[in-house]
Amino acid sequence: MPPIVVTIDGPAGTGKSTVALLVAERLGFQFLNTGAMYRAVAWHCLQHAVNLQDAMSSTAVAANLSFHIVDHKMQVDGVDLSQEFRDDTISQAASVIAAHSEIRSILVERQRQLAEEMSLVSEGRDQGTIVFPNATKKFFLTARPEVRAQRRYDDLRGHSDVSYEQILKTQQERDLRDMTRSIAPLQPAPDAEVVDSSDLELDEVVNLLVQKVEQAQQAAN
Fold it and tell me: How far is CA 144 from CA 15, 22, 170, in A?
């Protein structure tokens, strides 16, 4: 049986990373955090003083990184950088990196290679539209802006002194940038199921998505 791919797209702060991880665990799949791949490129660029706006230089960084999934965690050149990626500066830098078509092409190819090796719940912003158009099941997770900002604030508490107001402003700027970029703009795939998590508990969202995936698998068989 070939590997199965489930995609979960959506803007920042919807809880899609946590949801995707829990859904993957329930289904016995691996979790592909594609945002971590863009953050890895951004982090390496910042560490080596590479100009994020310089497409050629930042693309060279991306081309030289290796990505592997170990126990649902993305390892970059054999190292788990998940703690470094929590910094909001890295998130903003990743959004700049994601606008470079050359980098997107490299990372999309890496994502598809991973999907050839294992069944995945792949989370990001263009998984159902660009990366895995033939995924078994596609979701687009959303939530009200103020709810998303509060979730991000709670997530960063103790790791950053950024305020709720700053997060909301940054989130709005990123949403605009992600939705209006010419390469793979943030939008639901035509066949994606849109799920608003604003008024749902985490376990309710996870249960809903697992149920939908199992139904899709049964229909496919």
Answer: 12, 22, 15
DSSP 169-195: HHHHHHHHHHHH-SSS-S---TTPEEE
Q: Letter for the amino acid at 199?
A: D
- The answer to whether the annotation marks 12 as part of a ligand binding site is yes
pTM to 2 decimal places: 0.85
Q: Is 17 annotated as a binding residue?
A: yes
Q: Provide the domain count of the chain.
A: 1
The pLDDT tens digits for 89-103 are 888 899 899 889 999
Cite the beta strand spans of 89-136 per DSSP E.
Answer: 120-124
What CA–CA distances, in Å, run from 110 to 59, 127, 219?
14, 13, 29
Q: How confident is the model at residue 177 (pLDDT cuts 50, 70, 90)?
A: confident
From residue 104, alpha-carbon distances to 55, 59, 95, 187 in Å are: 11, 9, 11, 16
15 annotated ligand-binding residue: yes
With residue 6 as reference, give the H or E element that holds it.
strand 5-9
DSSP-derived secondary structure letter, 126: S
CA distance 14 to 201: 12
Closest by Cα among 57, 55, 138 to 98: 55
Contact 19, 202 (CB under 8 A): yes
Domain extent at residue 15: 5-220
Q: What is the CATH number of the domain that holds 163?
A: 3.40.50.300
